[in-house]
Amino acid sequence: MGKVLIVVDMQNDFVNGALGTKEAELIVPKVTEKVKDAVDNNNGVIFTKDTHYSDYLSTAEGKNLPVEHCIKGTAGWEIIPCLSSYAHNIIEKNTFGSVDLPKATEAYDEIELIGLCTDICVISNAILLKAHFPEKDISVDAACCAGVTPQSHNNALEAMKMCQIKINNA
Q1: Max CA-CA distance within the chain?
Q2: Which residues contact 80 (CB under 8 A, 6 or more apart)?
Q3: pTM, whole model, 2 decimals?
Protein backbone atom coordinates (compact mmCIF):
# COMPACT_ATOMS: atom_id res chain seq x y z
CA MET A 1 0.00 0.00 0.00
CA GLY A 2 2.87 2.42 -0.38
CA LYS A 3 5.09 4.11 2.14
CA VAL A 4 4.77 5.15 5.78
CA LEU A 5 6.96 7.60 7.66
CA ILE A 6 7.47 6.86 11.36
CA VAL A 7 8.33 10.05 13.28
CA VAL A 8 9.92 8.86 16.52
CA ASP A 9 9.57 10.91 19.70
CA MET A 10 9.85 14.43 18.29
CA GLN A 11 8.76 15.77 21.66
CA ASN A 12 9.74 18.94 23.48
CA ASP A 13 11.71 17.11 26.18
CA PHE A 14 13.95 15.47 23.56
CA VAL A 15 14.49 18.58 21.45
CA ASN A 16 14.95 21.44 23.89
CA GLY A 17 13.70 20.15 27.23
CA ALA A 18 14.97 17.79 29.92
CA LEU A 19 16.94 15.59 27.49
CA GLY A 20 17.31 18.04 24.60
CA THR A 21 20.51 18.43 22.61
CA LYS A 22 21.97 20.84 20.09
CA GLU A 23 21.93 18.00 17.52
CA ALA A 24 18.21 17.41 18.13
CA GLU A 25 17.45 21.08 17.57
CA LEU A 26 19.45 21.04 14.33
CA ILE A 27 17.38 18.28 12.70
CA VAL A 28 14.01 20.01 13.27
CA PRO A 29 13.90 21.82 9.88
CA LYS A 30 14.78 18.63 7.97
CA VAL A 31 12.26 16.57 9.93
CA THR A 32 9.56 19.17 9.32
CA GLU A 33 10.30 19.18 5.58
CA LYS A 34 10.26 15.36 5.47
CA VAL A 35 6.89 15.20 7.23
CA LYS A 36 5.41 17.84 4.91
CA ASP A 37 6.68 15.90 1.87
CA ALA A 38 5.15 12.67 3.18
CA VAL A 39 1.78 14.38 3.66
CA ASP A 40 1.99 16.06 0.23
CA ASN A 41 2.74 12.68 -1.38
CA ASN A 42 -0.18 11.00 0.45
CA ASN A 43 2.13 8.69 2.35
CA GLY A 44 1.20 7.44 5.77
CA VAL A 45 2.63 9.31 8.77
CA ILE A 46 2.73 7.83 12.26
CA PHE A 47 4.17 9.64 15.27
CA THR A 48 5.38 7.88 18.40
CA LYS A 49 5.29 9.57 21.79
CA ASP A 50 7.48 8.50 24.66
CA THR A 51 5.01 8.43 27.54
CA HIS A 52 5.84 8.21 31.21
CA TYR A 53 3.94 8.91 34.41
CA SER A 54 4.61 10.43 37.83
CA ASP A 55 6.18 7.15 39.01
CA TYR A 56 8.88 7.32 36.31
CA LEU A 57 11.84 7.46 38.71
CA SER A 58 10.75 4.17 40.31
CA THR A 59 10.59 2.32 36.96
CA ALA A 60 13.47 0.29 35.53
CA GLU A 61 14.13 2.99 32.93
CA GLY A 62 13.94 5.73 35.56
CA LYS A 63 16.48 3.94 37.74
CA ASN A 64 18.90 3.78 34.78
CA LEU A 65 18.11 7.25 33.43
CA PRO A 66 17.05 9.31 36.46
CA VAL A 67 15.84 12.34 34.50
CA GLU A 68 12.09 12.83 34.46
CA HIS A 69 10.95 13.38 30.89
CA CYS A 70 7.88 13.03 28.70
CA ILE A 71 5.52 12.84 31.67
CA LYS A 72 2.04 12.53 30.18
CA GLY A 73 0.19 15.83 30.18
CA THR A 74 3.27 18.04 30.56
CA ALA A 75 4.65 20.47 27.96
CA GLY A 76 7.72 18.23 27.58
CA TRP A 77 5.51 15.30 26.52
CA GLU A 78 3.95 17.21 23.62
CA ILE A 79 5.09 16.93 20.00
CA ILE A 80 7.19 19.98 19.08
CA PRO A 81 5.01 22.88 17.87
CA CYS A 82 6.11 22.88 14.21
CA LEU A 83 5.03 19.22 13.85
CA SER A 84 1.97 19.11 16.09
CA SER A 85 -0.49 19.91 13.29
CA TYR A 86 0.70 16.79 11.43
CA ALA A 87 0.48 14.47 14.43
CA HIS A 88 -2.94 12.92 13.84
CA ASN A 89 -1.86 9.29 14.08
CA ILE A 90 0.02 8.87 17.37
CA ILE A 91 1.21 5.75 19.15
CA GLU A 92 2.09 6.28 22.79
CA LYS A 93 4.81 4.01 24.14
CA ASN A 94 6.27 3.62 27.60
CA THR A 95 9.49 2.01 26.47
CA PHE A 96 12.03 2.38 23.69
CA GLY A 97 10.33 0.29 21.01
CA SER A 98 6.60 0.19 20.33
CA VAL A 99 5.05 -3.27 20.09
CA ASP A 100 2.08 -1.54 18.39
CA LEU A 101 4.10 -0.35 15.37
CA PRO A 102 4.05 -3.66 13.45
CA LYS A 103 0.25 -3.74 13.42
CA ALA A 104 0.07 -0.04 12.50
CA THR A 105 2.48 -0.53 9.57
CA GLU A 106 1.55 -3.98 8.28
CA ALA A 107 -0.34 -2.64 5.25
CA TYR A 108 2.63 -0.61 3.98
CA ASP A 109 5.32 -1.86 1.59
CA GLU A 110 7.98 0.63 2.74
CA ILE A 111 8.71 1.93 6.23
CA GLU A 112 11.02 4.86 6.90
CA LEU A 113 11.96 6.09 10.37
CA ILE A 114 13.18 9.51 11.49
CA GLY A 115 13.44 11.23 14.86
CA LEU A 116 14.96 10.87 18.29
CA CYS A 117 17.06 9.37 19.64
CA THR A 118 18.90 7.41 16.95
CA ASP A 119 20.73 5.30 19.52
CA ILE A 120 17.75 4.45 21.71
CA CYS A 121 14.22 4.67 20.31
CA VAL A 122 14.91 4.91 16.56
CA ILE A 123 17.16 1.83 16.57
CA SER A 124 14.77 -0.08 18.86
CA ASN A 125 11.80 0.55 16.58
CA ALA A 126 13.76 -0.08 13.37
CA ILE A 127 15.04 -3.45 14.58
CA LEU A 128 11.65 -4.40 15.98
CA LEU A 129 10.07 -3.66 12.59
CA LYS A 130 12.82 -5.48 10.66
CA ALA A 131 12.35 -8.55 12.87
CA HIS A 132 8.61 -8.44 12.29
CA PHE A 133 8.85 -7.72 8.54
CA PRO A 134 12.15 -9.22 7.28
CA GLU A 135 11.16 -8.80 3.60
CA LYS A 136 9.95 -5.19 3.77
CA ASP A 137 12.02 -2.18 2.78
CA ILE A 138 12.85 -0.54 6.11
CA SER A 139 15.04 2.55 6.16
CA VAL A 140 16.24 5.36 8.40
CA ASP A 141 17.02 8.87 7.20
CA ALA A 142 20.22 9.69 9.11
CA ALA A 143 19.90 13.41 8.36
CA CYS A 144 16.56 13.46 10.17
CA CYS A 145 17.83 11.73 13.31
CA ALA A 146 20.00 12.69 16.26
CA GLY A 147 21.44 10.58 19.03
CA VAL A 148 22.35 11.24 22.62
CA THR A 149 25.83 12.04 21.27
CA PRO A 150 27.16 12.26 17.71
CA GLN A 151 29.25 9.14 18.36
CA SER A 152 26.31 7.08 19.65
CA HIS A 153 24.23 8.31 16.67
CA ASN A 154 26.89 6.97 14.28
CA ASN A 155 27.22 3.71 16.23
CA ALA A 156 23.46 3.16 15.97
CA LEU A 157 23.48 3.82 12.23
CA GLU A 158 26.26 1.24 11.78
CA ALA A 159 24.38 -1.31 13.90
CA MET A 160 21.21 -0.81 11.85
CA LYS A 161 23.18 -1.26 8.61
CA MET A 162 24.41 -4.61 9.92
CA CYS A 163 20.77 -5.60 10.50
CA GLN A 164 19.95 -4.84 6.83
CA ILE A 165 18.14 -1.60 7.55
CA LYS A 166 18.86 0.89 4.78
CA ILE A 167 20.51 4.10 5.97
CA ASN A 168 19.83 7.14 3.79
CA ASN A 169 21.60 10.52 3.85
CA ALA A 170 24.38 9.34 6.17
Answers
A1: 43
A2: 10, 11, 12, 15, 28
A3: 0.97
